[in-house]
Amino acid sequence: MLRSSAPVASDSPPVLQRILLVALRHLRVARGVNTLNPDALLAQLHWRYAVKKFDPARKIAPELWAALEQSLVLTPSSFGLQPWKFIVITDAAVKQKLVAVSWNQPQPAECSHHVVFAVRKALGENDVDRFLDSIVATRGGSKDALKGYRDMMTGFAGKAAEQGWLREWGVRQLYIALGNFMTSAAVLGVDTCPMEGISPEEYDKILGIEGTEFATVVACAAGYRAADDKYAQLAKVRFPATEIVRHV
Amino acid sequence: MLRSSAPVASDSPPVLQRILLVALRHLRVARGVNTLNPDALLAQLHWRYAVKKFDPARKIAPELWAALEQSLVLTPSSFGLQPWKFIVITDAAVKQKLVAVSWNQPQPAECSHHVVFAVRKALGENDVDRFLDSIVATRGGSKDALKGYRDMMTGFAGKAAEQGWLREWGVRQLYIALGNFMTSAAVLGVDTCPMEGISPEEYDKILGIEGTEFATVVACAAGYRAADDKYAQLAKVRFPATEIVRHV
């Protein structure tokens, strides 16, 4: 079951503060302070495209990047298990090296921040326990109270490993992160280019994660389009809703 | 290579109009008319959670839903191939039937719009050609000019089918759509609950797509949280950025 919030642990401590915070958040949303209107969202999703040529001189401002990094951290995942690592590359020499293992596409070098989405290859009981520790640290309560949840997750991971689809389950979660990241960037006015056309094994070597518990899955360059990227001028090609959306 | 825009076809017709539109869009973005500020984005991503209990009385307004449906249509995909179908269920009887094949979770029945993400199981030359027709219809030019692109895609699909990972490639694209959809909903102030805990085969039967070219992958309920969904009050549990983000 895919969900971002784990079951309630009893005895969560700072109840009053939390209620006030949540109430405040509801109020702000109710007033529309933090939301976009539908036209603005669609304008940004139309504005977005897979940038071929970034402007190497334009860097993402630190406060914008901090928000984008948090959007990665906040990505929902199955059981909340977050089977991932995000590697953010701004070092010019490393970025340049990645071009050759990205089908010679220039985006890794020319973008501002190149993000590598790496999956946790296995999911042992220790990983589940680390997650449960994190729940208890955040919400209070005891780990014992989460035993049912623990059993469900270790049972799931065991079955998935046995049947050979645990890693692909993790990869799917990373694609949620990729979708979330591109949309988050678009609503902030930051350009991206998702890149499946890379050599994951060569990425692993260059980033020094070969043989570790993580492996490169996909990358996404972020930054700002060059003024002369001709792809920015092209009309977006999509099948019409009448073909790909069915109403029941 | 994952990208949403296909190569440039020559002779695209309504050039002036397009340039004006693009210029207008750039201006609006430059003025920040359509973008969120970073704090507002993060407020919405914190506000988002996997809703357990929807308010069955609250429906998503038509203009909001239209935008969310467009966000699905605009999802980027590998080569731009859009190997998907989105099934939007508002019929009460069908929604109720889906509960039993969703581990008895009530969200499909209680939400406003229940979205099923279905993958195109195979990708033949006819599918590639349909996509190329769509490029030509949108951008003008001739299909012949896209022959290199066609060869790349059919070569890719053939290899992926032979090696047995074509369907999983498509599923990954659907998870981009899922991530995009949840984030789009969050910035509009609409609640969601991603649901991997479903029986895809039973969904296929209920939706009448068993044996067709599409198959259910994952679902996402959308609507508004019930005032008494206790999960809304819980602090979000995430590993800290220091653990899951690495800077190079």
Describe the structure.
The structure is a homodimer of 248-residue chains. Chain A has ten helices and five strands, in the order αααβααβαααβαβαβ. The longest helix of chain A is centred in the last third of the chain and has 23 residues, at 166-188. Chain A has a four-stranded antiparallel beta sheet, sandwiched between helices. Chain A is 48% helix and 13% strand. Chain A is α+β, with helices and mostly antiparallel strands. Chain A has a domain at 50-122 and 163-244: NADH Oxidase (3-Layer(aba) Sandwich). At the A-B interface, α1, α2, α3, β1 and α6 of A face α1, α2, α3, β1 and α6 of B. β5 (245-247) of chain A pairs parallel with β1 of chain B, so a sheet runs across the interface.
